[in-house]
């Protein structure tokens, strides 16, 4: 079977990327220049670039044209209970934390439902930014009943919420239920993460459970989608 001109253009672009001729974020040559280089029609170049944009090899900026999509320096495994610190350090960065606020407030009806506690039970609320080499990466909002940990107890810990809870209680995290949601823009959080209005966020809503299937704490983790990608393994039932 004869290879099409569109295939020829796609392979040429992929080869330029693999050989380092086109770096992450680099602008592609003009459609006309590629067409002349490969002796194909400009329509074929348009079609090839459109396919590579769909396949997320290239990015399309309306004012600037197509460019090589920058690779994510981090990936978070959704199928494993991996801490954000571990994710950062496994990729060769130094994990850090910038604390925004600590508080202890009565649980709202939503908090009570998520944590399976009576309404108005006091919960510890921790707001922080997780950083990689001081670069803002994840906004975290954690809520846990004060019976499990108080603000003071957490502040005297080594910053790992799970370890702090396990240190002060007999509770042990056995699994987590996670929801993943794309967020286009959230002014307060985007500003804290130094994310532009055009940069999307990925929200992980996570409830951590003990061996008796009882909630221990729940979290809102907003990841900068330009820096973190997610990976999981799906099995056929």
TrEMBL record:
Coiled coil: none annotated. Keywords: DNA-binding, Transcription, Transcription regulation. PROSITE patterns: HTH_GNTR (PS50949). The keyword DNA-binding applies. Residues 3-71 form the HTH gntR-type domain. Transmembrane segments: none annotated. It comes from the Bacteria. The keyword DNA repair does not apply. This is GntR family transcriptional regulator. It comes from Staphylococcus hsinchuensis. The lineage of its organism: Bacteria, Bacillati, Bacillota, Bacilli, Bacillales.
């Amino acid at each position: 079977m004869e290879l099409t001109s569109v295939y020829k253009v796609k392979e040429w672009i992929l080869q330029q990327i693999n050989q380092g001729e086109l770096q992450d974020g680099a602008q592609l040559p003009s459609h006309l220049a590629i067409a002349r280089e490969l002796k194909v029609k400009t329509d074929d170049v348009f079609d090839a670039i459109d396919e590579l944009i769909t396949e997320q090899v290239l990015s399309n900026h309306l004012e600037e044209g197509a460019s090589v999509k920058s690779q994510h320096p981090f990936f978070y495994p959704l199928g494993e209970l991996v801490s954000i610190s571990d994710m950062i350090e496994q990729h060769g960065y130094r994990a850090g934390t910038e604390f925004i606020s600590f508080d202890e407030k009565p649980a709202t009806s939503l908090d009570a439902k998520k944590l399976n506690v009576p309404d108005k039970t006091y919960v510890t609320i921790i707001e922080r930014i997780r950083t990689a080499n001081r670069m803002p990466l994840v906004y975290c909002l954690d809520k846990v009943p004060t019976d499990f940990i108080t603000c003071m107890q957490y502040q005297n810990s080594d910053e790992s919420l799970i370890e702090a809870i396990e240190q002060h209680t007999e509770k042990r995290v056995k699994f987590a239920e996670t929801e993943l949601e794309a967020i286009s823009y959230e002014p307060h959080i985007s500003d804290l993460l130094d994310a532009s209005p055009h940069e999307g966020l990925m929200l992980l809503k996570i409830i951590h459970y003990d061996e008796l299937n009882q909630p221990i704490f729940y979290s809102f983790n907003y990841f900068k989608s330009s820096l973190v990608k997610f990976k999981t393994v799906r099995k056929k039932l």
